[in-house]
What does this fold into?
Amino acid sequence: MIIKINKYSFRQAFIDAGKTTQFSYVGLQNLFDWFELCEDGMDLDIELDVVGICCEFTEYEDLDEFHNEY
It folds into this structure.
């Protein structure tokens, strides 16, 4: 069973899961856009898994922070 969501619903899912500090507003918008591009480009449906997304993705403050991690 598939339910299509929009950016608002995507962000709301993170709020409902208590993950409000995991990503910024802009970060969530960019993640949503990326997932939509993946769905369109691969002709598949992606299941929204907030905890899985939080485990797989990290938002850095800047490029220096990224370089310090790696």
